[in-house]
Design brief:
alpha+beta, four-stranded antiparallel sheet, 35 helices, 44% helix, elongated
């Protein structure tokens, strides 16, 4: 554990780092204030493991949260870091002087290969306690193993590559199973596939790495002390289990690709960084004599796997003669270099040492090696006495600043997108960089995203005379404003409108830039109709109109008016320029009824047919009453085209839209009367013959027809008004047949009909002096007799003209007398039969037996007053009353109730008089007579017919047996 002074020194270092970071970011003029509420933790945080080994630690390996370490001479300690309190200790059982040379743990943490200094290898599986010898590996000092990450499992490694100290690369496979009777060794095979050399001599294989790229393409990287070899080849689909020998065979004809550096420090180490599990590494770092070679891995390039390679040369405090680097580990943006007494963290972006931490060898022993768990990403460092673990936290926190200083702004923005204050600095730096390089449009786009002072940026572009860039800046800035920032939006909208109009004016004057003018105009119109700023344009439309008017841009003013739905302004503009068709097109397109009412009078004077077509297309959406001013507003010359179009629209309203408004019908009547008299009579005839069906004013129609002398139309109106005398009088001036049709109309009033026919007959006799026609009147109307029309004839007319009519009249009288005689005889016979029936009914009687029962209650009949009907049914008085009452009308029920009350009153009065006087006797007789009359009235109501055989039963046949109001109650009683 660290001392109190050590802890204080560490806290001071953390505070110092926090202040430096804050100073780098600081408070900018952009409006962002970087307030750090708590001190940031360092990226690399060291933690000592609470573990005191019983013996010295020789070697340590960690993978997939499985830690294996060699202690002393013959002890192996395994720890599952998920269960650190359950360590597993195994004795290797070696009696000779062999020591552990290397520990190799596969990516799954299941297979452990132990290389011994006696050129032997043993194998231990995670699920067993037994150490097994790899007999085929004997005789080779193993320096490196390239594990198979693709098909390796907990029970089998799959084909792997093994590198020895003599530069030989073997291919092997290890199985954890016990094997067969004849083969109990875990090593399935062990065969040589290649050998490496340096300066013509075998060189130890320091590191091996196997990776798969695209399309089954495999890459093998092998390093010696100062060379880095690459082997590239393809394996057929499904042949991964057959190993990698074919890849080396493919490279036999060609010398393997390698890089060599002159300085040799006796060993080298390569490390890789993988961003995600089960993916290929993205970057590498190779620690060798000249420094650290690092760069990207490009699996697409055919010649070499390495790209963007750089060499970080060792600093002056690293002397290969005395202070050599021991191990290297690569993270996303750093590589950690382990020295005998310290750890250095170097940023791969700029090669700067960003962190250095010193250890105390006198306390923990010298540093031996640094390992990174490729699965968990934790970094482990161990000495002979202690184990340390490094946590890497928010490694990318300051990467944005490095990319920004390198002018890699896209990457800088990617790594600070969740830190707005840093992103603002990157955007400001990018904008300034583009501005200095005269890329003004890009600069404007970046400046618009920053929080820098608006006025300062705008002035920069104005001073540089870059209106396009200024416009782009304003557009981007406008896009980023919130809807609540109405003042700023209004300012930018009007400013942009002015810039667009200036630009359009410049381009329009230059004939060679017509294409650019059209593009700019379309861009300006897109800006005007932007839905995001619609409210701003609407609230400031008068200002925009003034700007457009000041530049004389009529086309865009019309376009803007349409966007603002200010169609009245657009139509007025077209009308002022005599472009009435365009005005009507706007009206028809937007279908605003109020605008139709306003502009139709003007349009009707110039394009009547098109206007009427538009009205008809609008249909019910227009009120014809409101269009009457436009219809009557034709010129004094009386243009027939306007009149005909007016009649056409009125006919459409009446016959198609079925408009019932009196004003419309009256106006159509007036048009017919003045300009189309042939249609007047047809209109009146089809309009109806009853007052309720008429939609025009009858008096107005009569006056109009009389003024223009249309007598037949007047007759028709008189007929509708039921003024039949006037109709006949007027019809006689036109045609006798028309008068006859009028005379027959009052069907219910025979006296009036006769009077009308007499008028016709008088006219025929006196005016036309046509006796034959007068005789025809007699045959047309059965109400007229020859004696009615004789007074109309002059004295000189002979009787020969009336001979036939008089004979016909006498015959009719004779027939009528015969009919009356026959009716009298039939009436006498009928009266005789009725008297006989009455006499027979007086003598009719019925016999009631003592055992007879009431048809309703089924009790003996003679117990109470009863009724006997001719049909044979017998009822008690009260039973019959109960049966009949429900079938009576409310009037008869009320009357029956009133009669029953009167009957009860007379009965009570009779009982109260025990000794009546003489005058009382008289009154009693009267009361008795009255009582009998009341009972007779009651009988007429309830006993007029049998309740089972009469009309009451027939009328009740459609009534349900159970009353609907009591149906639910009856249903519930049955449940």
């Amino acid at each position: 554990m660290a001392s109190i002074l050590d802890q204080y020194e560490d806290s001071q270092n953390i505070r110092q780092h926090s202040r430096v970071s804050a100073a780098n970011i600081g408070i900018t003029h952009s409006g962002f204030v970087n307030v750090r509420l708590e001190e940031e933790k360092p990226i690399f945080n060291k933690q000592r493991i609470d573990f005191s080994p019983p013996e010295k630690i020789n070697h340590l390996s960690v993978c997939n949260n499985q830690l294996c370490m060699s202690l002393g001479k013959d002890t192996l300690l395994r720890i599952d870091l998920g269960k650190p309190d359950q360590p597993n200790q195994i004795e290797l059982g070696r009696k000779d002087d062999s020591k552990v040379h290397q520990l190799f743990l596969d990516p799954t943490g299941s297979h452990l290969v132990i290389s011994l200094t006696t050129n032997e290898c043993v194998y231990l599986n995670r699920n067993t306690q037994k150490v097994r010898s790899l007999s085929r590996w004997r005789g080779h000092l193993i320096e490196s193993i390239g594990w198979n990450k693709l098909i390796g499992s907990e029970t089998n490694t799959g084909p792997i590559l093994v590198g020895t100290s003599q530069g030989i690369i073997f291919e092997a496979e290890i199985s954890a199973s016990e094997g067969s009777l004849f083969n109990t060794n875990p090593d399935q095979y062990f065969r040589q596939v290649h050998s490496l050399e340096e300066d013509g001599k075998p060189a130890p294989v320091c590191c091996l790495e196997v990776e798969r790229g695209l399309e089954s393409k495999y890459f093998i990287v092998a390093t010696t002390r100062k060379r880095l070899f690459q082997f590239v080849g393809k394996l057929a689909e499904g042949s991964e289990q057959q190993g990698f020998s074919s890849i080396f065979a493919q490279n036999q004809d060609l010398l393997p690709s390698f890089q060599e550096f002159p300085v040799n420090m006796g060993y080298s180490e390569i490390t890789f960084y993988t961003s995600k599990l089960r993916s290929s590494p993205k970057t590498f770092a190779w620690m060798m004599g000249n420094g650290v070679l690092y760069g990207q891995l490009d699996y697409v390039r055919p010649d070499s796997l390495l790209s963007d390679v750089q060499v970080w040369e060792y600093t002056s405090d690293i002397d290969l003669n005395s202070v050599k680097p021991i191990s290297i580990v690569l993270t996303q943006f750093h590589f950690l270099l382990l020295l005998p007494d310290r750890v250095k963290s170097i940023c791969t972006l700029n090669g700067q040492v960003v962190h250095e931490e010193k250890f105390f060898p006198e306390k923990f022993g010298s540093l031996k090696k640094m390992i990174k768990d490729p699965i968990t990403g934790l970094v482990w460092i161990y000495t002979e006495k202690a184990v340390f673990r490094y946590h890497i936290q928010r490694e990318a926190r300051d990467v944005w600043q490095m990319y920004m200083n390198m002018n890699k702004f896209d990457l800088a923005k990617e790594y600070c997108k969740d830190r707005p204050e840093c992103l603002d600095m990157v955007l400001a730096k990018e904008a300034e960089h583009c501005f200095q390089n005269k890329r003004y449009l890009e600069s404007a786009k970046c400046y618009a995203l920053t929080q820098n002072y608006f006025e300062e940026i705008a002035l920069k572009f104005i001073e540089a005379k870059q209106e396009e860039a200024l416009k782009e800046f304003l557009i981007k800035k406008l896009t980023n404003f919130k809807p609540t920032e109405k003042t700023q939006i209004t300012l930018l909208v009007t400013w942009l409108t002015e810039l667009y109009l200036n630009r359009l004016g410049q381009l329009e004057a230059d004939d060679g830039k017509q294409h650019l003018f059209l593009e700019t105009r379309e861009e300006f119109r897109t800006f005007l109709k932007s839905p995001k700023h619609k409210d701003c344009f609407y609230n400031n439309r008068n200002t925009i109109y003034d700007l457009l008017a000041s530049h004389g841009d009529v086309d865009n003013m019309v376009y803007f008016s349409v966007i603002m739905q200010d169609y009245e302004r657009v139509i007025s503009h077209y009308c002022q320029h005599d472009d009435y068709s365009a005005a009507l097109d706007v009206l028809s397109k937007h279908c605003d009824d109020k605008l139709f009412y306003k502009f139709s009078p003007v349009l009707m004077q110039h394009i009547p047919k098109k206007v009427v077509d538009a009205w008809i297309q609008m249909g019910n959406r227009l009120d014809p009453k409101n269009l009457i001013p436009a219809l009557v507003n034709y010129s004094q010359m009386g243009s027939m085209q306007q009149i005909n179009e007016t009649i056409r629209y009125m006919e459409f309203c009446v016959y198609e839209l079925d408009v019932k408004d009196e004003a419309i019908h009256n106006y159509l009547l007036s048009l017919y009367a003045k300009h189309k008299p042939d249609a007047l009579l047809w209109y009146l005839e089809q309009a109806g013959t009853h007052v309720s069906d008429i939609h025009y004013d009858l008096k107005y129609a009569l006056r109009l027809c009389a003024e223009h002398g249309y007598l037949q139309a007047c007759v028709l109106v008189y007929k509708i008004m039921e003024l039949y005398e006037e109709a006949v009088d007027l019809a006689l001036q036109v045609d006798v047949d028309l008068a006859k049709s009028c005379a027959d109309l009052p069907e219910d009033d025979e006296e009036l009909r006769k009077k009308l026919w007499l008028k016709i007959a008088r006219h025929v006799v006196q005016e036309e002096k046509d006796v034959k026609k007068a005789m025809n009147c007699l045959s047309s109307c059965n109400l007229l007799k020859i004696e009615d029309i004789l007074p109309f004839f002059p004295d000189f007319v002979t009787i020969d003209h009336f001979k036939e009519a008089i004979c016909n009249s006498l015959e009719e009288y004779n027939e009528h007398i015969k009919e009356l005689k026959q009716e009298m005889e039939e009436a006498t016979e009928s009266a005789k039969r009725i008297r006989e029936d009455i006499q027979e009914m007086r003598n009719k009687y019925g016999v009631v037996e003592s055992q007879e029962k009431c048809a309703t209650c089924d009790f003996p009949l003679l117990n109470r007053p009863f009724y006997l009907f001719l049909c044979g049914h017998m009822f008690h008085y009260d039973c019959l009353l109960q049966e009949v009452i429900p079938h009576l009308s409310s009037y008869k029920q009320n009357k029956l109730e009133e009669l029953q009350k009167k009957l009860a009153a007379t009965t009570q009065t009779t009982k109260s008089r025990h000794k009546p006087k003489e005058e009382d006797t008289v009154s009693l007789g009267k009361g008795q007579g009255s009582r009998e009359q009341i009972k007779s009235d009651i009988d007429d109501i309830i006993a007029c017919e049998c309740v089972y055989c009469g009309e009451l039963m027939i009328k009740s046949i459609d009534k349900p047996f159970i009353d609907l109001q009591k149906f639910d109650q009856e249903m519930s009683s049955w449940l």
